[in-house]
Structures are given as structure tokens and as C-alpha cells.
């Protein structure tokens, strides 16, 4: 025991050794504690990795969209995949997140297309209502003449589905087309000789009206 009543450690050579206070300092030094804690579990802000190692750096994810469920009629081509990856660069998305976003994007596009088609159907129905109002009591007679025109044209030009063309484009509800076909049916129904003489002329007139109304439609597909 020393002069101040403190214990001392004596080594094998008889020299006195001061007590080792290193452990005590580490236990009481808050700075050292914080350093040890963060080095064991990661930084406070970056501890979201849950001890699984360093996070993947942006741009190192190999995105794979194979098997992503798409709406009917949709396909995520290689070109579209490349464009999509260009858009999400720097977002640090995982492959699963990118796949989910791609799936949602195509579903959203499908809903947009369906909405446009619904608006188009409503517009065609509106044309029909307006045509019925304009024709009034002559509606039945006009429909009969249009039917005659369609039958005569399809008989003269086998494979020409006039009714399908009118339905697909909605032109069959346009009052201008309705009146043109009614007049054509009247001409073609009067005299077989006149029908043979003026059939092509009447067809060209009807197609000319339709072409002016739908300049972007490829009418060759209906021949």
C-alpha cells in the first residue's frame, strides 16, 4: 500500500506500476462511446441498411422487366424498356420498385385509351341522335334507302364491306353520310341499268365524303 493509502501493483522486478486507467476513461468518455456505437451499427442517418452492408450505388441495378403483367394488348418492348430506364435513372429504385412502376404505367395508359374510346363512342352516339332529329319522320325511309345502297354496292364489289366501314368510323351516324347513302340507294334502286352505269360514280362520291371527314383513315383496308 502506498503512502496515500492507494493500492499499487508491483511487477516481478519490484518496481511500482501505476494503475491502468484506460478502461475507465473509455467508459466515461462520451465521445469515445459515440464513436464505438456508430462504428458497430453504422451512422445514425444511414442505419436504414439494418446492418446488411453498404447500399447499392445509383446506376448499378440491372433492371429486369421480364414477366411483368401487362394489360391485354400491351407489350413493354426492349425499346420502351430502355426509355423507361432512362427516365428512372438517379431515382435509386430497386428492381422490384421499377417493375411495379412499369406495371402501373401500362395500366394507366390502358385506362387513358379506354377513356378516349368511351368519349369517341359518346360522340358517335351524339351524331346519331342529331341525325334522327334532323330526319324526323323520314328516318325509316332513309334507313331503307341506305340499306339498298349498301346491298347494291356490296353486290357490285364483292368483298367490299360497306356497313363495317360505316360502323368502325362512326360515319353511319353522320347526317351528311346518311343523306349521301340515301340518295345513292335511291339512284341504285330505280333501274338496274342505271345502277350499273352510276354505281362506281356513286361509290366514289360516298368515299370522297368519308375521306374528307376522316383524312387520316386508310380506306384501302376496307376494300
- Helix and strand sequence: EEHHHHHHHH
Provide the helix percentage.
55-70%
Enumerate the spans where pLDDT stays under 50 for 5 or more consecutive residues: 1-17, 21-28, 30-40
Tell me the distance between the termini: 117 Å
The secondary-structure class comes to mainly alpha
**% residues in beta strands:** under 5%
Oligomerization state:
single chain
Number of β-strand runs? 2
Strand order of the largest sheet: 1-2
Radius of gyration: 42 Å
Mean pLDDT: 74
What is the count of helical runs? 8
What's the main sheet like?
A: 2 strands, antiparallel
How does the overall form come out from the CA principal axes? elongated
Keywords:
223 residues, mainly alpha, two-stranded antiparallel sheet, 2 strands
Your description of this structure?
The protein has a two-stranded antiparallel sheet with strand order 1-2. Helix 5 (139-156) crosses helix 7 and helix 7 (175-190) packs antiparallel against helix 8. It has eight helices and two strands; from the N terminus they run E-E-H-H-H-H-H-H-H-H. It has helices at residues 22-28, 30-41, 78-88, 95-135, 139-156, 162-169, 175-190, 192-213; strands spanning 9-10, 16-17. It has 223 residues and is mainly α. The model is unreliable at 1-17, 21-28 and 30-40 (pLDDT under 50).
Short overview:
This protein is mostly helical and 223 residues long. Helices cover 61% and strands 2% of the residues.
What does the secondary structure layout of this molecule look like, with pairings?
Elements: E1 9-10, E2 16-17, H1 22-28, H2 30-41, H3 78-88, H4 95-135, H5 139-156, H6 162-169, H7 175-190, H8 192-213
Antiparallel strand pairs: 1-2
Helix pairs in contact: 5-7, 7-8
Amino acid at each position: 500500500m502506498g503512502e496515500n493509502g492507494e493500492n499499487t501493483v508491483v511487477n516481478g522486478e519490484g518496481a511500482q506500476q501505476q494503475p491502468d486507467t484506460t478502461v475507465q476513461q473509455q467508459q466515461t468518455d462520451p465521445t469515445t462511446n459515440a464513436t464505438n456505437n456508430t462504428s458497430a451499427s453504422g451512422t445514425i442517418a444511414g442505419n436504414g441498411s439494418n446492418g446488411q452492408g453498404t447500399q447499392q450505388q445509383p446506376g448499378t441495378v440491372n433492371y429486369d422487366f421480364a414477366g411483368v403483367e401487362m394489360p391485354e394488348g400491351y407489350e413493354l418492348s426492349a425499346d420502351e424498356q430502355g426509355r423507361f430506364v432512362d427516365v428512372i435513372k438517379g431515382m435509386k429504385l430497386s428492381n422490384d420498385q421499377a417493375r411495379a412502376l412499369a406495371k402501373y404505367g401500362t395500366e394507366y395508359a390502358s385506362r387513358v385509351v379506354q377513356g378516349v374510346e368511351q368519349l369517341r363512342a359518346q360522340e358517335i352516339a351524339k351524331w346519331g341522335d342529331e341525325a334522327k332529329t334532323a330526319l324526323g319522320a323520314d328516318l325509316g325511309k332513309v334507313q331503307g334507302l341506305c340499306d339498298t345502297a349498301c346491298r347494291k354496292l356490296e353486290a357490285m364489289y364483292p368483298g367490299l364491306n360497306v356497313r363495317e366501314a360505316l360502323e368502325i368510323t362512326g360515319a353511319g351516324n353522320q347526317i351528311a353520310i346518311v343523306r349521301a347513302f340515301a340518295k345513292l340507294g335511291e339512284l341504285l334502286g330505280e333501274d338496274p341499268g342505271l345502277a350499273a352505269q352510276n354505281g362506281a360514280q356513286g361509290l366514289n362520291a360516298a368515299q370522297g365524303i368519308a375521306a374528307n371527314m376522316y383524312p387520316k383513315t386508310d380506306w384501302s383496308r376496307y376494300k
